[in-house]
Amino acid sequence: MLLKNALTGLTDFTDKVCTGLKLSEIILEFRSGNILFGIHKKHYVLVYCNNKVKEILKVCDIEQFLEVVDELPPDNTVAIHVTSVPVAFSRITAKKCASLPNNILFTNIQELDRVIEGYFLTKQDSVKDDMRTIIRKVEEINKKFEKSETQRK
Fold this sequence. Notes:
The structure is a single chain. It is built from four helices and seven strands. It has 153 residues and is α/β, with parallel strands linked by helices. It has one domain: Trna Endonuclease, Chain: A, domain 1 (3-Layer(aba) Sandwich). The protein has a five-stranded mixed β-sheet, sandwiched between helices. Strands 4-6 form a two-stranded parallel sheet. 18% of the residues are buried. This is 1604_t:CDS:1. It comes from Racocetra fulgida.
């Protein structure tokens, strides 16, 4: 009976996370236990639901999550570890997470939509900055080309 209650708790929590993801316009393609996988704005989104952590997030709490993340392409994937309550990081976990790429996010269910929105807004700004850089470089190349054409005449 205890196992059934634990699974029901995980399922209920995962259902709440699913609802939050759908509100953030993430199209869920796959669900297996506490792992959700979907698509949002040409990005893959992996979500790991963890309702076991109550106060402090330890390395053992994120090992399975990080193993799955290691298998994904980093360029267009965002991975999100979601807890049921706000938690602190143990010192060792904080050090381990500090070296992770910025496409790996840690949050709680209350902050999930804000974190997702913030991540994709940052991505959008990054793309705009990249476009500005590309446009500037193209303009520089065009000026050099025009200058060399003028000198040839």
